[in-house]
Design brief:
Layout: E1 7-10, E2 17-21, E3 24-28, H1 43-66, E4 72-81, H2 83-86, E5 96-106, H3 111-124, H4 126-133
Antiparallel strand pairs: 1-2, 2-3, 4-5
């Protein structure tokens, strides 16, 4: 089993956070309308982006084995998030209530072949699996440094 690691550190700028993994740094922030500096995607936009990327990578891997040929695939995603949950309403979930996506293929394959391939992508996508089925998240340690 492979272990992945990342860290997140709040910067001095508004709601901006510096995240990194494998030496690659990314800035996460909120839009100005939510009190941020608009210097990067916010966490929920990153979740959508991670899902879209995972769907793309899954498709690329499966296409070789399934002999599915396409020139390009675009994944369009959107998610519904009710901020009232984040603001404390116990009847509303804190996160996305629903995520929807569509796949657009530039291909000579038939609609039936695209539909079947899309089913294979969905069944094998690791980020889709985590979002659909949940994953255990455990606070491991609290340190004073």
């Amino acid at each position: 089993m492979e272990r992945y690691q990342a860290s997140a550190r709040k910067t001095d700028a508004s709601l901006q956070v510096d995240v990194h993994s494998r030496g690659i740094h990314t800035t996460i922030d909120e839009p100005a309308s939510l009190g941020g500096g608009n210097t990067g995607m916010n966490p929920v936009e990153l979740v959508l982006s991670a899902l879209g990327t995972s769907l793309q990578e899954t498709a690329a891997d499966l296409a070789v084995n399934d002999k599915f040929n396409y020139e390009q695939m675009t994944v369009n995603l959107e998610g519904d998030l009710d901020a009232a949950g984040f603001m404390g309403d116990p009847d509303i979930r804190n996160g996305f209530q629903e995520i929807r996506y569509n796949l657009q293929f530039k291909t000579k394959e038939t609609q039936a072949a695209c539909d079947q391939f899309a089913d294979q992508i969905e069944a094998n996508c690791p980020v889709k699996d985590m979002l659909s089925n949940g994953v255990t998240i455990a606070l491991d340690q609290v340190e004073i440094v």
